[in-house]
Structure formats: C-alpha cells, structure tokens
Write a structure and sequence with these properties.
Blueprint lengths: L2 E7 L4 E4 L1 H11 L4 E7 L4 E7 L3 H14 L20 H10 L3 E7 L2 E2 L5 E7 L6 E9 L1
Antiparallel strand pairs: 1-8, 2-7, 3-5, 3-8, 4-7, 5-6
C-alpha cells in the first residue's frame, strides 16, 4: 500500500491547505480506486475538509474556535491546569479533541473525490510556528 509523510510549516494558528500535495501523491501512485487516509501526527492541531474558495470561511472558522476555546490566560479559562507550554497549549489540545486527526477520502479514477469547493486543511491551533507531519496512506 502506498504511503508517504508530508511536512507542513505553519506560521501560527489558522488553516493551511494541502489539497495539492495529497492530489499529487494519489496521482503518483497510479491507484485508480481506493481510500486515502490522512492522519496528522500531533496533538495540538487537527485536520478539516472545508471550503477552499472564499478565504473568509477559514478566517471565520479560526475566529469561532478562538471564541469557543480561548487561551488559558483568558479569565474564563482559569480552570486549566496544563500551562507548562504556554497559554495556547491546552486550548490547542481541546480544539484538536473537538475536531479530528484522521480523515478518509475516497479515490476514484485516480483522483480525490472531493466536492467542487472542498479542500484539505491542517488546522493549526498553536500561536507560534510549527512543523507538522501528515501521513497519507492509500489503500486499495
């Protein structure tokens, strides 16, 4: 079964599209039909399939999650104990727990069967830059 690891550099919190990298991987394998499993190897970021046409969607999602789970130095988050890695760390773990770290995408005719406006995103939940690893595994 074909498998690879791609690496993404983030500049801080936000959504980072990697649809092209996943499509190139699938095309290189020559597999016509199967299931692409996408898995992120970290606990403070997650994966999303989301609209890739209007950047306002990404900004609004990022703002929603910041309001839903503020940094631990926000007065509403005084209950948080895990703060050793900064005020954004435990909230990042919570956001990752609310979303997903693995996604399955059908492959047909050698292509990802995403909808017209769908793209694959790494959702970075930490404030500072990180290098993230994403495993792509194509099963027949």
């Amino acid at each position: 079964m074909p498998q690879t690891i791609i690496s993404l550099s983030t500049r801080g919190a936000g959504l980072y599209e990697f649809t092209d990298q996943a499509e190139h991987f699938v095309a290189r394998t020559g597999v016509e039909e199967g299931l692409l499993t996408v898995f992120v190897r970290h606990t403070s970021c997650s994966l999303l399939i989301q609209e890739n046409a209007d950047p306002d969607v990404r900004r609004d999602l990022d703002q929603f999650f910041k309001r839903l789970v503020p940094r631990s130095d926000d007065p509403s988050m005084r209950w948080i104990v895990h703060t050793a890695e900064g005020a954004d760390d435990m909230p990042a773990h919570i956001k990752a727990a609310l979303t997903q770290v693995s996604i399955g995408i059908p492959v047909g005719d050698g292509r990802l069967m995403l909808g017209t406006w769908q793209g694959l995103y790494l959702f970075e939940h930490r404030d500072r830059p990180h290098r993230r690893e994403i495993v792509l595994h194509l099963g027949g």
